[in-house]
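protien #1 (seq + structre)
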Amino acid sequence: MLVLRRADVTDVLSGREAEIIDLVADTYRSHDEGKTSLPHSTFLRFPEERHSRDRIIGLPAYTGGEHPVAGMKWIASFPGNVAAGTERASASILLNSLSDGRPMALVEGAVISAKRTAASAALAARELTRQSPTSSVLLVGCGVINLEILRFLSVALPDLNEAALYDTDPARAEAFAERCAREVPSVKAHPVGELAGALAEHRLISLATTAAEPHLDLSACGPDTTVLHVSLRDLTAQTVLGATNVVDDTDHVCRERTSLHLAEIATGGREFVDAEIGGLLRGTAAVTREPGRPVVYSPFGLGVLDIALAEYVRREAGRDGRGIRVDDFLP
């Protein structure tokens, strides 16, 4: 068994944004071709009121291709951690051998989860704005995920040079701007105090908040707006129904009271989903922009991405001699 700590994962993935985007794109293509196995995620919730917003999610997955791999991500989301000064999410990924089924690696998963999420968002932004490139983005929610999204957008969108930052806590937005300046210096990041005006000004918007219920519509947005709806529960059902919707997997995203699940409940169907990202990448699906309808990308966050990226880390770490080997983990 190989144990890969956060430092090992970070060292392997640092500066490899372009490679990670390519890996995510390849995995989406494989998923669209039916070369993956992806059961529904399992959500562990707790009966106590003090844990009403907390959850732990299990994502089992298999992906084929050049480097086939099976495994599971176990990720905890405790939003109260943010106020306490610690990260909201923590995760572990277990990879199993396909020759005998035995566990072969335990990988710290929070870094992988953040980077695959950001790579998915940046890939979608590149594909959905290809006909009309943008030079700015509005980041709503100043946390780990939007920092990674900005990092990956700076690679995927060569024209990007400005990031407006909005958070319900202005001090958090100010501190976030300083961190962006250090870590993504090619993009000028600055806080904004009023959300509606910022929505109108920017054609690319990334929503990465801890919202548990819909709280936002896109009526303030201008024409030709693309929204990366990463946190999945920000937009009202009516807003979803008034948009052109792209997802990673329709069946997975219409669950657990996401905004799209609420739209399905309201209409009794899923006809409002226009395309899946794998189909766009393979050329088997297309998106047509309509005046007054924003394009919204809502990725559920497929376990196949975590497993594929964790396997990439395992291979690279093995070449470099990283990690801790536990030879007597199994008999």
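ok now protien #2
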Amino acid sequence: MSPDLTNATFHKSSLSGTHDNCIEVATNLPDLVAVRDSKDPSGPALAFTPAQWRSFIGCVNTGAFDA
């Protein structure tokens, strides 16, 4: 079952600048962080628990996904 994202307020990172390849994140929902492609706002979104999202961001910040 997909989460209800009707009241999600998505924001694009200010670090994205004018780049088109960005994601938007909604953190205003209880117990849920939603992520979508900024080029396709009516398309699918991924949903994470806040703990999962914090873990992902922590890995990004430490360079765990750098090639």
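The mean pLDDT is 91.
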